[in-house]
Amino acid sequence: MFSFKTLDDLPQELKGKRVLVRVDFNVPMLDGAISDDTRLRSAVPTIAELSDRGAIVLLLSHFGRPKGQNRPDMSLALLVRPLSELSGRPVRFIEDCQGPEAERAVTTMTPGSIAILENTRFHAGEESNDPTLAKAMAALGDYYVNDAFSAAHRAHASTEGIAHLLPSFAGRAMQAELEALEKALENPQSPVAAVVGGAKVSSKLAVLSHLLAKVDHLIIGGGMANTFLAARGVNVGKSLCEHELTGEANAIFDQAEAANCTIHLPYDVVVAKEFTAIPPSLRIVNVHAIAADEMILDVGPDAVEAFADVLKTCRTLVWNGPLGAFETPPFDAATVALAKTAAALTKEGSLVSVAGGGDTVAALNHAGVARDFTFVSVAGGAFLEWLEGRTLPGVAALEQQ
Fold it and tell me: What distance lies between CA 201 and its chain's CA centroid?
């Protein structure tokens, strides 16, 4: 159960109060332009609300990996115009995120104005959570708002250190994220299902172990399902498979049985001799009929239908990872089909669906259903660490207020 203060707990009248807002503006760039502005858009509601309430809004973020160096190509000055256009408000730039120059610049700002401060990672103390840097940043503000769940798994000066130095609150995006996560696993409606996919078991062992005790049904797809099939004696041909982890897979089967959690694996699959779009050797087979020179590239239609039937019995769904090589049609079929089922169940009100992780977001967008899920998290590492049951320092710091 999360316990944190939100913007509703701030004084309604904030005229002239300086609010430091930790956002995640680490957006992808292509040829000097933003290629995906999702993170900017997600921050606008908090920025606009604070500005409308008269606050001086000071935005803190990292951008890239400058490793304590001042890198013009990683300056947040690049994001001033895009944010201004998205928010419909003037945005200024302050050339540091701490120190005398930043303090002087802040004193010239008027109620309701907005500024982006320079990249926090231009200071080596950011990633080491240097208390001196945190104190210098905190000196610029009266309040601290964290609206960057996607950076909450890092105990950095601007995500964790500063939260102990000022009255701290969750922004609207952070609030939405934490409320969705609480509905999904902290206090869910049962039965609960988890769909976990992706290429490798090794990157999801901790996730699977944590979920076993939380969910009633665990649906495993993607390349990682091959390792579980191999652990059950299936010859997976030349499929992507971590044969050295079949022991760990068997341990997870045992844990699931002890936790009364049912693991669902595909029993028919889409295979081909080469991984290309619509290869001539494409066929759908039972998992026991895979040839030695074939590789599994997607879950078969019968298994997808069975997975869909499981979701129809559930009230809550957590999804992380695609079921197949969805970037290359026709190996997107299983992911798209199951995503559409989950979306339809969500729209009719019978399922709370929470999804997260980079590939997952891309897959749900590809299926055209991301907006129909209850909540889709754009956080990568933070979402995965939450699925592993780990404490997120940026969230813990808010809970301690």
Answer: 19
Paired strand residues for 286: 268
Reply yes or no on whether 200 is catalytic.
Answer: yes
- Mean pLDDT (10-residue bins), the chain, 401 residues: 87 96 92 87 97 98 93 94 96 97 97 98 96 98 96 95 97 94 90 93 89 96 96 96 95 96 97 90 95 96 98 97 93 97 98 90 92 91 89 89 68
User: Residue 96: CA atoms inside 13 Å, Cβ hemisphere, count?
Assistant: 16
Check if 358 is active-site: yes
Structural contact between residues 401 and 168, judged by C-beta atoms closer than 8 angstroms = yes
Catalytic residue of the set 39, 121, 154, 172: 39
Asked if 53 is an active-site residue, the reply is no
Which of 109, 142, 175 terminates a domain? The answer is 175
Domain that holds residue 116: 7-175
CA triple 172-176-182, angle to 5 deg: 145
Q: For residue 397, is it within any domain?
A: no
Asked about 381 being catalytic, the answer comes back as yes
* Closest residue by Cα to residue 324 from 310, 303, 343: 303
Strands (E), 256-379: 262-264, 268-272, 283-286, 295-299, 316-320, 352-356, 375-377
Do 277 and 330 belong to one domain? Answer: yes
Q: Which residue, among 185, 182, 186, has the nearest Cα to 194 in the 3D structure? A: 185
Structure tokens at 289: 């009929």
Distance of CA 194 to the CA centre of its chain: 15
Residue 74 tokens read as 């990683």
